Each structure stands twice: as C-alpha cells, then as structure tokens.
Amino acid sequence: MAKLWAGRTDGITSKLADDFNSSIHFDCRMYKQDITGSMAHAAMLSQQGIISEDDADTLINGLQAILFDLEAGTLSVDMDCEDIHMFIEQELTDRLGDVGKKLHTARSRNDQVALDMRLYLRDETDEISALTKAVVKAVTDKAEEYAEAIMPGYTHLQRAQPISFGHQLMAYAFMLLRDIDRLADCRKRLNISPIGCCALAGTTYNTDRYFEAKELGFDGICQNSIDGVSDRDFCVELLSDLSMMMMHLSRFSEEIILWCSWEFKFVELSDSFTTGSSIMPQKKNPDMAELVRGKTGRVYGDLMGLLTVLKGIPLAYNKDMQEDKEGVFDACDTVKMCLKIMAEMVSSMKANTENMYKAAQKGFINATDLADYLVGKGLPFRSAYKISGQTVSACISSGKVLETLTLDEYKAFSPLFDNDVYEAIDLKKCVEKRTSEGGTSFGSVRKQISTVRSKLS
Ligand code: ARG
Questions:
Q1: Would the N or C end of the chain have less CB density within 10 A of its end CB?
Q2: pLDDT of amino acid 11
Q3: Are 90 and 4 in contact (CB under 8 A)?
Q4: Average pLDDT of the chain?
C-alpha cells in the first residue's frame, strides 16, 4: 500500500526496506500518548480558528473511539504500518474520511514523536518513582525490625567494626531516596512540550503552543524549534538516573547474595524468591538477586547505546533518533521489574541474627573501641591505636579474643587497663556508643528510620 507520506515518490517501498524502517513493533506502546497528544492538537487547531469547531469535535470523538476500541481489544494495531503515529492517523482517516486528513495540520511527525516520548516517559518516571518508594519502605521496615541486631560492618570485605543490621539496610534506603530525587529533577526537564516545533522550523499557522502544552500538563515549551525536535537529553538523563539506581540495586543484591552463602549465613530469603538446582538437591539459590545484579548491565548498555546514537547526529531530526526507543523502553521495563522483585524479596527476607552476632565476635572488630578506651584513660589516639594493635596481635598468636584476656594479661600491654575494659569492648555497647549524627547507635538508626518515613509520606 502507498504510504500516507506518498508525495515526491509514489510511497511504494520494498518489503525489506519497510521492515527495516518500521518502528511500530516497539512504538505501539505509545498509542495512548499519541492519541492524547492528537486530541490536544485538534483542540488547539480549532481554538486558533485553523480548523472548525465541528471538525475538531469530529476528530476528538474519532480519536476517543480509537482509544476505546484499542483498549477494549476490538481494534488491534496494524503491524504493517510504519509507526504508531501513521497507524492512528490512517485509522482516523479510514473512519472519518477527509476530516481525518486535517489532523496533521501545523505539526510534523518530528514534533509528534518527541511529544509522545515525553508523555510516555513522564508516566514511566512517575511509576518508577512510586515503585522505588515501595522498595525504600520495605528496606526501612526491615531496618526497623533489625535495628538492634548486631553484625560486623566491613571495609575491604574484612570485618571492621560492629554495626546494627538496621544501619546497614538504611544505607540503601538513603541511596534510593537520592534516586527518587534524581527522577524528580529529570522530570522537570522532561516535562517541557516540543509540540508545535513542527518539522524543525516552526509553522506559518497561527498556533498556540502554550495552549497545547497546558492541555497536556506540561510546565513549559521548548523555546527553539530545532532543539525541540532534536533533543533527546531527557531520554539520556532518565537512562543515566536508571543506571545509577540499578548500580544501587546491584550492590544491594550482591550483599544479599553474599549474606545467603554458607560462608556468611546472615540472611535467609523466602522460598518463593529462590530457586533450586536441577542436579544438587541441597541448593537454594538467590537467582532473583543475581538477575537484578545481571540486568544492571543491560541498563548501562541502554545508556551507552543512546549516547552513541546521538553523538554524531547533525540537527535536526534524523532517522537515527528512532533508535532512542527500544533502549529507553527496555531500561524502564527492566528497572520496574527489578524494583518489584526487590520490594518483595526484601520484605520476605529473614535475618539470622545469631550468626551475625557470632561473626561479629570474630575478627577483633572491637579493636577500635579498645583504643578509644585507652584514649579515655588519657593516652593520645595514635599511642592507644598501637597498644590495641599489639594486644590483637598477641591474641591471634595465643588463639584468644579480646573478651577472654585476663586483666593481668591486659596490664602487660598498658597499666591503664582496668576492669571496665570488658564493658568498653562489649559488642552491643560498642554499637550503642556510636551516637554521632548518622552513626550506628540504635538511637541514630531509629532517627534515620523516622527521617526516611517522613520523606516517604
Ligand atoms: N518512527 C519515527 C521515530 O520513531 C517517527 C518520526 C519520523 N519522522 C520522520 N520524519 N521520518 O523517530
């Protein structure tokens, strides 16, 4: 069939070229945004006297009917069309005859596709934000449940200092809150209307771009028509925000995977979020967490892909830009799935607090507290640090731990040691004492929890 755009050419292309050129199998998901945008466009055209009120009503009702039929499943998208914009316009014209042909006055597919993408990604951004909030809530609930569970905190994956498991979890809550913030910031630049930029140069018709922008809930309009149709920064920005979010989810997943191992045994995932092995009957694998970690790669790939597509495109619209969609759609789909999985996986995760505590007892993670104890007795920190280190080293040689050294043994390292040393190195006390702002004390963890809860509400 000849194309709607048959003009200079007869619009008859080879089947191979059609398949290569077509984007309908991925842009069909924007049908609703395309129809909404067209309804606002028809309203603007009649408000400005470019088409009659009757024609606008006919167009708007026709578009509404197409939307209704698509959603009811009584109309399906014709995959032989070039893209969703052409399909809707063709369907409208089939239904309304000549009136349908008036819709495309004072616009181009170039501003139309930019509009649809912004409308679509605005909804996606809002949905992703809401899903991220649900993960933050799940993490915060878990942190509250385990606010007083002691575990070793790590640096270099070596046991470092005792912390509350709640504190460790809240670190992820704050990362994800920043991700929500970034999405809100990205939304500001995304929510600007390109419609009315037309092909690239604007139009000779007396259009009202502000009217159309307002109808569609935009905060403003693109101020340069060439930029308006060439700009895909909002896609890159969203992909970059999603990449950062996936990096956070991936680090969290990596920890969950480690914690599930026999080497750690800190947490137990619910059976419904693990899988077995086809050959090893004892296995309970954290596949969901591994997949979140793995899918991070595809989201980074989506970001790099689009940056690369855009880097050499001269102004204004070029067909290369059709390549913006699959990556950004894939990233949104992937992130949404990962967030849903994370929320449920974390909610149903149980901590093995006994094992965490046992691990905290090994590794001399209260050695800093031993040094701080000597500082309290008047020694400068560097000297105290040295004595604590020597004490640890002696313990390692004799197979002892700080808690089992006798006072006499302590006194051999420094006369400043006294009976109160045992309280000073008690793991729970070590955590409770870290009352500095943002530290791991139980009070501080509870404060973080309430800060996050108030941000969520
Ligand atoms: N399917 C195209 C895209 O996704 C729509 C815009 C086409 N415009 C054009 N002048 N060929 O980018």
A1: C
A2: 75
A3: yes
A4: 96
E strand or H helix that includes residue 268? strand 267-268
Is 279 a residue whose pLDDT tops 90?
no
Two tokens at 218?
């935009």
Yes or no: say if 257 and 286 are a contact pair by the CB < 8 Å rule.
yes
- For ligand 1, whether the C-beta of 83 sits within 6 Å is yes
pLDDT in tens, 204-242: 999 999 999 999 999 999 999 999 999 999 999 999 999
Tokens 């009976």 sit on residue: 419
Q: Is the CB of 111 under 6 A from ligand 1?
A: no
Which residue's CA is the nearest one to ligand 1's atom 12? 322
- Catalytic, 156? Answer yes
Q: How far is CA 44 from CA 30, 103, 193, 228, 239, in A?
A: 21, 11, 14, 19, 32
Average pLDDT over residues 78-92: 97
DSSP single-letter state for residue 284: -
Distances (CA, A) of 61 to 46, 80, 105, 217, 311: 14, 25, 18, 20, 41
Residues 156, 436, 454, 457: which is the catalytic one?
156
Which is the closest atom of ligand 1 to the Cα of 27?
4
Question: Strand 192-193 relative to strand 158-164: parallel, antiparallel, unpaired?
Answer: unpaired
Q: Is the CB of 109 under 6 A from ligand 1?
A: yes
The answer to whether the beta carbons of residues 144 and 346 sit under 8 Å apart is: no
pTM of the model: 0.94
Residue 387 is predicted with a pLDDT of 96
